[in-house]
Design goal:
seven-stranded antiparallel beta sheet, globular, two-stranded antiparallel ribbon, alpha+beta
Length: 209
């Protein structure tokens, strides 16, 4: 009887672990927030380049995941990468649209030169207007900022389009600099959005003759 109970418990435990493994396959998780390992944007499959948490005064504001066609380990590599891209933000505490929009604009101002801003001022204005459409961002909301070649920058809240599409890639790169620029909004988040650098293969040993 004892042996039967032991067998049943082990069987149930193994089944539970197997179910967990299946449900977790293909997804990364941070602070309870899951990010798929791959996503399709603009008809292309993107890979999760990195993910981390944006904190402010030790409070978790959102989880961020960057998706690219090919993984990049430097900000320069990310900004030069070809094909579609996605920056996904999963909100972890309620934030007013004013606070969120002001933080984005501050991030742009800190990381984009005056000359560069002059070229995309109209698109920056449209981006700011997007936040005016929202009353607030609530815990669990998902904000996707996508770049699709030939289409432009498109924004989605919980899968639904929000704001206008802007067509200049310079603008999308300016947005990415909020997290990856020289003065990122969160210095601890920046390196986590980058893929680990691949070590160069050692040079072959000289052949002894």
């Amino acid at each position: 009887m004892i042996a039967m109970k032991t067998f049943s418990f082990k069987t149930l435990l193994a089944s539970a672990l197997m179910a967990f493994a299946v449900s977790s396959a293909g997804a990364a998780e941070i602070a309870g927030v899951k990010f798929d390992d791959t996503m399709k944007v603009g008809g292309k499959e993107l890979k999760l380049n990195g993910l981390g948490i944006r904190t402010k005064f030790f409070v978790k504001v959102y989880a961020a995941g960057l998706y690219l066609q090919e993984k990049q380990s430097t900000p320069e590599g990310v900004l030069k990468s070809e094909g579609p891209r996605r920056m996904r933000l999963v909100i972890m505490r309620e934030v007013t649209s004013d606070d969120f929009g002001n933080a984005f604009m501050a991030g742009l101002n800190d990381n984009v030169s005056a000359a560069e801003k002059g070229k995309i001022v109209g698109q920056i204005s449209k981006f700011g207007e997007m936040f005016a459409l929202l009353e607030s961002l609530k815990k669990g909301d998902v904000l996707d900022l996508d770049w699709v070649p030939g289409v432009g920058t498109a924004n989605f809240l919980n899968g639904k389009p929000i704001g206008d599409v802007t067509q200049d890639q310079t603008f999308y790169n300016a947005v990415l600099k909020i997290w990856l620029g020289p003065k990122p909004v969160d210095s601890g988040l920046k390196p986590k959005l980058l893929a680990p650098a691949v070590a160069a293969a050692p040079a072959p040993a000289p052949v002894q003759r």
